[in-house]
Amino acid sequence: MISYKTKLNHLNDRTKGYTQALTDHKIAADKTLIKKVSLNHDATEITAAVKSLLSTPSVDAILFASNRIALHALKYIQQTGIKIPDQVELIGFDESEVFDFFQPQLSYVKQPMHQLGQTATELLMDIITQNKKEQLVFVPSELIKRGSTSSASGRTSSQPSPKERE
């Protein structure tokens, strides 16, 4: 996974969700495989993070915590000639039309933006008008599988994984 070094809750929650998903599936969360890049030098740091992850034999997929990270990573990966999803599978976070121009198209975690905006407005109005306290709300997301993940490209679990094909 590649995310930002930040105090922004939504990005840190994505990293927590990633590690929790690994734990839920009885996979040890290796902190060395969670790369954090700075906002100031993100292009060069993203490239370095991708290189590091791709050089790790156990890595067969990368999750990007933001569209900006995904964009820089995809540019680098396309230059290397690495075959997606055969050699590495990729998943972004949030939908963006820019990813329609990459082949194969990027799989991503879709957030219900309309529902998020409506819920945030309702909570804010409750805080203002009724003096209510802030509250934590979870809104479900959805994985949109496209060509950058093997299940979207037709590989089934009985077929070899990307690393087994090497």
TrEMBL record:
Residues 8-149 form the Transcriptional regulator LacI/GalR-like sensor domain. The keyword Transcription applies. This is Substrate-binding domain-containing protein. It comes from the Bacteria. Residues 145-166 are annotated as: Disordered. Keywords: DNA-binding, Transcription, Transcription regulation. It comes from Niabella ginsengisoli. PANTHER family: HTH-TYPE TRANSCRIPTIONAL REGULATOR GALS, LACI-RELATED TRANSCRIPTIONAL REPRESSOR. Residues 146-166 have a biased composition (Low complexity). It holds the Pfam family Peripla_BP_3. The lineage of its organism: Bacteria, Pseudomonadati, Bacteroidota, Chitinophagia, Chitinophagales.
